[in-house]
User: Fold this.
Amino acid sequence: MDAEHIFVDKLTAGQKLDQVFLVRQKELRTTRAGSSRYIQCTLADRTGSMSARMWQATEAMYASISDGGFLQVKGRCEDYKGALQIIIEACRPIPPDKVDIADYLPVTEHDVEKMWSELLDILRGVKDKHLRMLIKKFVEDREFVEGFKKAPAAMSMHNPFIGGLLEHTLQVARSAKALLPLYPKLNRDLVLASVFFHDMGKIAELTADLTMSYTDKGQLVGHITIAAIWLAEKAAAVAEHTGETFPEKTLNLLQHVVLSHHGVHEFGSPKLPAIPEAFFIHYLDNLDAKMYMTAHAIESDADPKANFTAYNRQLETYIYKHSGTLD
Assistant:
């Protein structure tokens, strides 16, 4: 990282820039008057991203910018209709081996191995032998575990960083462990196993290399369906290993929780919750996502002096920043 680098979350209007950014997307556009062309792109580092424009652009300039590559940008940061944007005055591509990749990839702030260890410890509370064997099949799958530790939980809404899936899953598991004693009629084993499985399809839905994006499989199938398929495949593997049929009811219940955990059809769930455990998982999943989204909205708001954040489209409201104290 160059000495004068200013991270995206610290940029303010009027700043001059001469530093490297990661290009997340690019587009060659024509002005409304049709008299010239300009490049519209998104520049990012590990703290966030910002819209950028380069006026009087040519096809050659556009072609030289690699989507998902690094770009040395000389320009300025300015306010445009209440939002910050970068005006690119000059730029040149930078090879990946010339930058510190860690400065450009958002990563969980927590220790991945400690989180994984804690999650496994919670899963040891599952007593049902078939669920235990099913969990074991996933945990012994090295490629699955590596993907689970690395995957983001979402593209933007919550935990959108490397390790985000593990961080989110652990938080839901912690909540489930804390609340289960208050609801003794719930199937504890089904809940804990379902927490582990509910979002695991994100491993195949999202990619987190130099950029985070949806995979073709993620776009065509989606993480909910992917997880339901994986459960059937691993249940078949358990049956083959033990020589016993995996209980159909157990598999149906697990798949139902996965398929319904978004709670409503318009959020991608092909089924609505139809068992108490599915409602439980849905609300815990939603709770953790909302807590991340509200905290992130406050921490990343462009005006630290304002009492409320800018309007949040996902939450459909402005977030008041000072509820943490009553004085």
Summary: Residues 112-294 form a domain with the Hypothetical protein af1432 fold (CATH 1.10.3210). The chain has two domains: 8-103, 112-294. The mean pLDDT is 92.
